[in-house]
């Protein structure tokens, strides 16, 4: 049985890679590959946690990779270049492989699990997923004229989950972070609405939004870990401000 569970991360990567291959080479029927790959990915992730829906730990191990894969599939629809589509498919398969592999070690082979690996990988998946979802949200508003009052609640719920899941996997008591999660989600949603008015592309808006989310998440985690020193704060601000300046400076403004 252990061998079966060990094969699941490889199966997830193969399913994701096959789904993207189908979508790239069969664009007229891309939805078939996307739907089949999504269902199989959901099943494999659920099988990896032994279909235990009651345990909060297992719900996190299921929702995080599935939400990330869903965001990647949505972002795929806005890509036109063959190489960008290939890069997205490869990156998605690699990220999901490493995450599910560490989940396997954590649940079924604890002696091989390296401490804090899932914490770091979940942070990466949440940041990337938020960038994809923000790109989708800004893209839907730009191309389909979807009103913000329909998009903003979805962004709010996603941020609530990502903040709560990141704090939970970092072993921070939920009582301590409850107000931070709600306040942070509201502030980030307001930022999303404000960025939608910028005369720039939806990828630029999503990048600005994601950098701000990363800054907020990093500083709040450091605060709860009592690690928010001047050096840490200076380093985070320098990196974030540098990224923001680079994004704004290289963006094409309408």
TrEMBL record:
The chain crosses the membrane at residues 7-23, 29-46, 58-79, 85-109, 121-140, 146-168, 175-197, 203-224, 236-253. Keywords: Membrane, Transmembrane, Transmembrane helix. It comes from Candidatus Uhrbacteria bacterium GW2011_GWF2_46_218. It comes from the Bacteria. This is Uncharacterized protein. The keyword Secreted does not apply. The keyword Transmembrane applies.
